[in-house]
Amino acid sequence: MLSLLKKLAGGAAAPAAACPPAPPAPAPAPAPKVDPYMLGLRDAVLSGWFNQQTGELFTGFPVTAADTLLDVGCGDGGNVHFCATRGAHIIIADIDAAKVEATRLRLGDTIAASVECHVTDCAPLPIADQTATRVVSTEVIEHVDDPAQFLAELVRVGKPGALYLLSVPHPSSENLQKDIAAPEYFQKPNHVRIISEDQFKQMVGDAGLEVLSHSQYGFYWSLWMMLFWEAQVDLGSPDHPLLNHWAETWQAVLESPRGEQIKQALDGVVAKSQVIIARKPLAA
């Protein structure tokens, strides 16, 4: 009404006050990057590794403080660290002196009853006959020149009744990588052979061990490695969209209602590793 009266009186209406623009909405915080190695650890636990409740390094392979455990080809010490936290007597052996020393240091914060270290090519092992009640050797046989000689050494140092945890890459994953991996991946000192399921069981049986179980796992890592070769990044810092997106996808799969069921189905089709639990027969 006031503006109409001003207009009729010859006056101009006052301009309406301008409203200040609303501040822009804050950008959503980026989702934290998925650590591919921690996701791989979660995937491994779902496959039967590192069971804190049962004390099993892998399903069917319990470790206690009463055990003397030998890890041949200890690598970064992940497997033997779990065993050291069970209070076992630990013996580690690897051809790489730096890895042996790094693993020795890593075990310093555990309750291992003792830690014995050897830098060796395992031909032969510098360990007395019938020493260990548990023998672990994961992802090693595909590297060695003479698998029969290598397994004979593992059997020699095990006590009668000792349990063995052995793993090698699964052929489903290795065959997928043949034309994609860097050439040196399938050259000495890396993977000099692809071992089928039947060959693996035959090797273990011929060495004089009784196969108790034979399983496979690692679809996540199989696909990750395929993308790793394409990404051409450093293994110690694998930052690339292909790898990041795959880790995010796999995390989402595991968190879905039927994620573990999907994982098991895919592990049965393309697996990174095959695992045998075996036993050395009791003395006659």
UniProtKB/TrEMBL annotation:
Query: Origin, by domain of life?
Result: Bacteria
A Gene Ontology biological process annotation? methylation
Matches recorded under Gene3D superfamilies: Vaccinia Virus protein VP39
User: Matching InterPro entries, A to Z?
Assistant: Methyltransf_11, SAM-dependent_MTases_sf
Q: Methyltransferase type domain spans which residues?
A: 70-164
Q: Which UniProt keywords apply?
A: Methyltransferase, Signal, Transferase
Q: Where is the signal peptide?
A: 1-18
What is a GO molecular function of this protein?
Answer: S-adenosylmethionine-dependent methyltransferase activity
What is the official name of this protein in its record? Class I SAM-dependent methyltransferase
Origin species, per record, is: Pseudomonas kielensis
